[in-house]
Design goal:
321 residues, alpha/beta, Rossmann fold, N-(1-d-carboxylethyl)-l-norvaline Dehydrogenase, domain 2, globular, binds ketopantoate
């Protein structure tokens, strides 16, 4: 049943698939720009801050890509009732804001809306399942890099594939969303083992993010130091063991090698955690090494490095407010 409160002023073309991106941070703005260039999609951004939403609505999403800077007009509002319910909602907020974002975006979910989290960290899809029907919630990963330069303005680093799946085993929905993303020119595919996918990503983030934040190095610079390289590998191995104890089926995955590969592939990136620390923002450490430490406790495994890194990054956050 359409809700008469949706004024529809910012989504005037009801026939096109509607994508709402929740959270105009670096990744949200990047994807609003990438998807918003596609003529057959109607892409909008939902912010929780009205002043920033107004600015982005007026200026669009500005992407500084390696090939040049371009602007994509993207309707943006803090009022969900300004949009019609979405076919796809992509959650790109920080992990600690997932519950608030779900509550805010709830009016935009209809019976057929896919709600996809592409956030960092563990625990996001479980939170979304408290607010949306389980079979509508999808979870995925992307290793694309983006740096927020100013509200609505991002520098795009490397673009990577989006891999997604349905924790509730709703394969048709996962497939439909992968096809929608592909239709916009993004590389996307479905996996049947979402938990293994999310653990692979969190393993990478556990190793790279705290070490870059603590040492102020770019991802690639971690490999330049023998001690940091060793620590990177040891953190990756620890997360691998915790995951194994928690029942993750890693498949063909060599933790140390994989982390080093990502450092190389994203060598010029400042990790999201380093960006947060430099920007004086709260980090996602509780959902990265913190989440792995909690899992370790639950399953009777050891995670001393994750525990230590969580404490050190939190120590930094105290300093940076
Ligand atoms: O996801 C990332 C992040 O910065 O959060 C990586 C993969 C480490 C890329 O920078």
């Amino acid at each position: 049943m359409p809700d008469s409160r949706h004024s529809d002023t910012r989504s005037p073309q009801p026939d096109k698939p509607r994508v709402i991106i929740v959270g105009p941070g670096a990744m949200g703005c990047l994807h609003a720009g990438l998807l918003g260039q596609t003529p057959h999609l109607q892409v909008s951004l939902l912010d929780h801050r009205a002043d920033r939403a107004k600015l982005i609505h007026q200026q669009g999403s500005i992407i500084e890509a390696p090939t040049g800077t371009y602007t994509v007009p993207v309707p943006c509002s803090a009022d969900p009732y300004e949009f019609r319910p979405a076919d796809l909602m992509i959650i790109f907020t920080k992990a600690y804001d997932t519950a608030a974002a779900a509550q805010h975006a709830a009016p935009l979910a209809g019976e057929d809306t896919a709600v996809l989290t592409l956030q960092n960290g563990l625990g996001n899809y479980e939170v979304l399942q408290e607010y949306f029907p389980e079979e509508q919630v999808l979870a995925g990963t992307t290793a694309s890099g983006a740096t927020l330069l100013a509200p609505g303005r991002v520098r795009q680093a490397g673009l990577s594939e989006i891999i997604l799946g349905s924790p509730a085993d709703n394969q048709p929905l996962a497939q439909r969303v992968a096809e929608l993303l592909q239709s916009a020119g993004l590389a996307a595919r479905v996996t049947e083992d979402v938990d293994a996918l999310l653990w692979r990503k969190v393993l990478i983030n556990c190793a790279i993010n705290p070490l870059t934040a603590l040492t102020r190095r770019r991802n690639g610079e971690l490999l330049e130091s023998a001690v940091l390289r060793e620590l990177l590998e040891r953190v990756a191995e620890e997360v691998y063991e915790v995951g194994k104890a928690a029942g993750v089926e890693w498949g063909d995955f060599a933790p140390g090698q994989e982390v080093k590969k990502v450092c190389q592939a994203t060598a010029a990136n400042q990790s999201s955690m380093l960006q947060d620390v430099l920007g004086g923002r709260r980090t996602e450490v509780d959902y990265i090494t913190g989440a792995v430490s909690r899992t370790a406790q639950e399953v009777g495994a050891q995670a001393p490095l994750c525990q230590c890194l969580t404490a050190l990054v939190k120590g930094l956050a105290v300093r940076y407010g």
